[in-house]
Amino acid sequence: xxxxxxxxxxxxxxxxxxxxxxxxxxxxxxMEVSLKDFIExxxxxxxxxxxxxxxxxxxxxxIAVNQENQGATGCSIDASVQFIQSLEKKYEVDLLDxxxxxxxxxxxxxxxxxxxxxxxxxxxxxxxxxxxxxNLVNNIAEYKDSWEVPADESWHSRFF
Length: 160
Known about the structure:
- The protein is of the alpha+beta class.
- It has 2 domains: 5-91, 2-Layer Sandwich (TATA-Binding Protein), CATH 3.30.310; 100-159, no CATH class.
- 32% of the residues lie in helices and 25% in strands.
- The chain has helices at residues 25-41, 74-91, 114-122, 140-146, and strands spanning 13-18, 43-44, 47-48, 51-56, 60-65, 100-105, 108-113, 131-133, 148-150.
- A 3-stranded antiparallel beta sheet has the order 1-5-4, with helices on one face. Strands 2-3 form a two-stranded antiparallel ribbon.
- The longest helix has 18 residues, at 74-91.
- This is ABC transporter ATPase.
Protein backbone atom coordinates (compact mmCIF):
# COMPACT_ATOMS: atom_id res chain seq x y z
CA UNK A 1 0.00 0.00 0.00
CA UNK A 2 1.47 3.31 -1.09
CA UNK A 3 1.65 6.13 1.46
CA UNK A 4 3.35 9.50 1.05
CA UNK A 5 7.04 9.23 1.98
CA UNK A 6 6.76 11.97 4.63
CA UNK A 7 4.00 10.00 6.40
CA UNK A 8 6.23 7.01 7.14
CA UNK A 9 7.75 6.76 10.64
CA UNK A 10 11.46 7.48 11.09
CA UNK A 11 12.08 3.80 11.93
CA UNK A 12 10.95 2.72 8.45
CA UNK A 13 13.53 0.63 6.65
CA UNK A 14 14.99 2.07 3.46
CA UNK A 15 16.99 0.98 0.45
CA UNK A 16 18.84 3.52 -1.67
CA UNK A 17 19.74 2.88 -5.29
CA UNK A 18 22.08 5.36 -6.94
CA UNK A 19 22.23 5.77 -10.67
CA UNK A 20 25.45 6.07 -12.61
CA UNK A 21 23.87 9.01 -14.44
CA UNK A 22 21.26 11.68 -13.91
CA UNK A 23 17.73 10.75 -15.00
CA UNK A 24 15.90 13.08 -17.35
CA UNK A 25 12.72 14.71 -16.06
CA UNK A 26 10.77 12.51 -18.48
CA UNK A 27 12.43 9.37 -17.08
CA UNK A 28 11.65 10.48 -13.53
CA UNK A 29 7.99 10.99 -14.41
CA UNK A 30 7.82 7.50 -15.95
CA MET A 31 9.67 5.95 -13.01
CA GLU A 32 7.33 7.56 -10.50
CA VAL A 33 4.37 5.85 -12.18
CA SER A 34 6.21 2.50 -12.18
CA LEU A 35 7.37 2.90 -8.57
CA LYS A 36 3.92 3.81 -7.30
CA ASP A 37 2.40 0.85 -9.16
CA PHE A 38 5.05 -1.52 -7.78
CA ILE A 39 4.57 -0.27 -4.22
CA GLU A 40 0.75 -0.44 -4.47
CA UNK A 41 1.09 -4.17 -5.21
CA UNK A 42 4.14 -4.96 -3.03
CA UNK A 43 3.45 -7.53 -0.34
CA UNK A 44 5.07 -9.92 2.13
CA UNK A 45 3.36 -13.23 2.83
CA UNK A 46 0.17 -11.99 1.23
CA UNK A 47 0.01 -8.80 3.30
CA UNK A 48 0.43 -5.44 1.61
CA UNK A 49 3.42 -3.41 2.70
CA UNK A 50 2.95 0.16 3.86
CA UNK A 51 5.64 1.68 1.68
CA UNK A 52 6.75 4.64 -0.33
CA UNK A 53 9.52 6.00 -2.49
CA UNK A 54 11.22 9.19 -3.46
CA UNK A 55 13.58 10.11 -6.25
CA UNK A 56 16.24 12.57 -5.12
CA UNK A 57 18.30 14.80 -7.38
CA UNK A 58 17.09 12.82 -10.44
CA UNK A 59 19.76 10.30 -9.44
CA UNK A 60 18.73 8.30 -6.36
CA UNK A 61 15.74 6.01 -5.87
CA UNK A 62 14.80 5.57 -2.21
CA ILE A 63 12.30 2.86 -1.26
CA ALA A 64 10.93 2.76 2.29
CA VAL A 65 8.80 0.29 4.24
CA ASN A 66 7.04 0.82 7.56
CA GLN A 67 8.27 -2.23 9.49
CA GLU A 68 5.79 -1.64 12.36
CA ASN A 69 2.82 -2.99 10.43
CA GLN A 70 4.39 -5.61 8.17
CA GLY A 71 8.10 -5.99 7.55
CA ALA A 72 9.67 -6.76 4.21
CA THR A 73 10.77 -10.39 3.97
CA GLY A 74 13.21 -12.26 1.75
CA CYS A 75 10.68 -12.78 -1.03
CA SER A 76 9.41 -9.21 -0.95
CA ILE A 77 12.96 -7.84 -0.92
CA ASP A 78 13.77 -10.10 -3.88
CA ALA A 79 10.73 -8.68 -5.69
CA SER A 80 11.98 -5.14 -5.10
CA VAL A 81 15.44 -6.03 -6.45
CA GLN A 82 13.83 -7.58 -9.53
CA PHE A 83 11.84 -4.37 -9.98
CA ILE A 84 15.03 -2.28 -9.71
CA GLN A 85 16.71 -4.59 -12.24
CA SER A 86 13.81 -3.95 -14.63
CA LEU A 87 14.43 -0.20 -14.27
CA GLU A 88 18.13 -0.76 -14.97
CA LYS A 89 17.28 -2.51 -18.24
CA LYS A 90 14.60 -0.08 -19.32
CA TYR A 91 16.69 3.05 -18.69
CA GLU A 92 20.13 1.53 -19.37
CA VAL A 93 21.52 2.58 -15.99
CA ASP A 94 23.38 0.93 -13.17
CA LEU A 95 21.46 1.04 -9.87
CA LEU A 96 22.78 -1.97 -7.98
CA ASP A 97 26.57 -1.58 -8.09
CA UNK A 98 27.58 -0.72 -4.52
CA UNK A 99 31.23 -0.22 -5.50
CA UNK A 100 30.62 3.37 -6.62
CA UNK A 101 30.48 6.70 -4.84
CA UNK A 102 28.35 9.71 -5.67
CA UNK A 103 29.46 13.05 -4.28
CA UNK A 104 29.09 16.76 -4.87
CA UNK A 105 31.65 18.86 -6.66
CA UNK A 106 30.33 22.36 -6.14
CA UNK A 107 26.81 22.39 -7.58
CA UNK A 108 27.45 19.27 -9.66
CA UNK A 109 27.28 15.58 -8.84
CA UNK A 110 30.06 13.13 -9.63
CA UNK A 111 29.78 9.36 -9.79
CA UNK A 112 33.05 7.44 -9.50
CA UNK A 113 34.23 3.96 -8.67
CA UNK A 114 35.55 3.46 -5.14
CA UNK A 115 39.02 3.05 -6.61
CA UNK A 116 38.79 6.40 -8.42
CA UNK A 117 37.36 8.11 -5.33
CA UNK A 118 40.21 6.78 -3.21
CA UNK A 119 42.68 8.03 -5.82
CA UNK A 120 41.00 11.46 -5.82
CA UNK A 121 41.29 11.57 -2.02
CA UNK A 122 44.97 10.72 -2.19
CA UNK A 123 45.48 13.45 -4.81
CA UNK A 124 43.44 15.86 -2.64
CA UNK A 125 40.88 16.37 -5.42
CA UNK A 126 38.26 15.59 -2.75
CA UNK A 127 38.53 16.10 1.00
CA UNK A 128 36.81 15.20 4.23
CA UNK A 129 34.57 18.20 3.63
CA UNK A 130 33.35 16.84 0.28
CA UNK A 131 29.63 16.08 0.49
CA UNK A 132 29.05 12.37 -0.12
CA UNK A 133 25.95 10.20 -0.15
CA UNK A 134 26.07 7.44 2.44
CA ASN A 135 23.77 4.87 0.85
CA LEU A 136 24.35 2.46 3.75
CA VAL A 137 21.83 4.22 5.99
CA ASN A 138 19.14 1.80 7.20
CA ASN A 139 16.08 3.85 8.07
CA ILE A 140 14.41 7.19 7.43
CA ALA A 141 15.90 8.78 10.56
CA GLU A 142 19.43 7.91 9.40
CA TYR A 143 18.53 9.01 5.88
CA LYS A 144 17.50 12.44 7.18
CA ASP A 145 20.58 12.85 9.39
CA SER A 146 23.41 10.86 7.82
CA TRP A 147 22.81 10.35 4.11
CA GLU A 148 24.11 13.60 2.62
CA VAL A 149 27.11 14.44 4.77
CA PRO A 150 30.76 15.50 4.66
CA ALA A 151 32.95 12.50 3.86
CA ASP A 152 34.56 12.77 7.31
CA GLU A 153 31.16 11.93 8.86
CA SER A 154 30.58 8.73 6.89
CA TRP A 155 32.28 5.47 6.02
CA HIS A 156 34.09 7.41 3.25
CA SER A 157 36.36 8.91 5.93
CA ARG A 158 38.67 5.88 5.69
CA PHE A 159 40.00 7.32 2.41
CA PHE A 160 41.41 10.45 4.08
